[in-house]
Specification:
16% of the residues lie in helices and 40% in strands. The protein is α+β, with helices and mostly antiparallel strands. Strands 1, 2, 3, 4 and 5 form a five-stranded antiparallel β-sheet that branches. Strands 6, 7, 8, 9 and 10 form a five-stranded antiparallel β-sheet that branches. The termini are far apart.
Amino acid sequence: MIKNFRTLTSWGVAVAAAAATIGATTGGPPHPSPADPQARPTTGQGKETRTGPRPTESRRIATSVLDGDFRFTLTALRSRTDPFAASVRLQVFTFEDGAWRESDRAPVGEADSWFWFPLTGRHAVCAFSTSGTEPAPVAVSLLVTPSIGCSPTESFRIDDGQIVPARHAAPPSP
């Protein structure tokens, strides 16, 4: 009987501790202040808080270089309003005077229409095709999610360093 009493007592303490934890997370008393007065910045001292917008987090997800003349990059840009959303930017660089200079940029898909984590993870680029012909065709297909799979291919062409979406491209002349 004493053994059962200890079990019930231990169980009662666990329930009381769980209730105290739930109360603290659902509007109970706030956490106590740090004991060390130096651990908490005060007005005019310590860390400054950022009041402006935070910089956009970006990650290069693919690069292609053609004959040392053109460089194409796909960059994921994390949304400032939704931490799970992202945009993708296609950039074209030309090699001039010994340095790469951006000649144009264009969005791939709509702004914030991609998911950040699949886009910046492994196997994010399903297809990234470039060619050195004039005008240079570029095709891009990216992972939407692992369960959905790859996006439809979006096509562009590069005319004199400028990006032209394929849907606005002029038909080839006969």
